[in-house]
Amino acid sequence: MNYPYETNPITDEVIEIRDSLAGEVYITDPRLVRISRLRLVSDAGFPMWDLSYCYGVLNDGTNVRVQLPWHQFSKRNLKGDLIAMCKEAGVFGKKLGLLDDSVISKCW
Fold first, then answer.
1. Are residues 23 and 64 in contact, defined by beta-carbon separation less than 8 angstroms?
2. What is the pTM of this model?
3. At residue 3, does pLDDT exceed 90?
4. CA atoms of 7 and 27, how far apart (whole Å)
5. 3-class SS letters over the chain
6. pLDDT range class, residue 56, cuts 50, 70, 90
7. Is 97 within a domain?
8. Which listed residue, of 6, 11, 35, 58, carries a Cα 20 to 30 Å from 106's Cα?
9. Looking at the predicted structure, is the pLDDT value of residue 32 above 90?
10. Burial of 37 per CB tally in 10 Å (0-12, 13-18, 19+)
């Protein structure tokens, strides 16, 4: 689907990561050392972002899909919601890179 507005669009690097995914982990997995991409989608005028996918890297360098406990985030308070989700799950989102603008891709 093509979106009229997009931040951090899909690149060849993102496609390479997607094609190399070797499984799935929950965000609380102790082997998870970094979030490499968080893709969010929405419709114009809708107040929430829907989770499309989240990719991460394990401590051995393996690329994996990451399951998050939340699947919707407020457009007005995205980073606040991400922080709250991480606190609820008992992980440090900033350390994982989840709050980095270069990791977050938004499409609307």
1. yes
2. 0.93
3. no
4. 23
5. CCCCCECCCCCHHHHHHHHCCCCEEECCCCCEEEEEEEEEECCCCCCEEEEEEEEEEECCCCEEEEECCCCEEECCCHHHHHHHHHHHHCCCHHHHCCCCCCCEEEEC
6. very high
7. yes
8. 58
9. yes
10. buried
Asked if 84 contacts 69 with a C-beta cutoff of 8 angstroms, the reply is: no
First to last CA, the chain: 11
Supply the pLDDT for residue 4: 73
Q: Which domain holds residue 25?
A: 12-107
62 contacts: CB under 8 Å, gap ≥ 6? 22, 23
The answer as to whether 55 is a domain residue is yes
Residues forming a β-bridge with 73: 49
Residue 73: both structure tokens together: 């985030």
Dist. CA 108–CA 95, nearest whole Å: 27
Q: Tell me how far the alpha carbon of residue 14 is from its chain's centroid.
A: 12
The total number of structural domains that make up the chain = 1
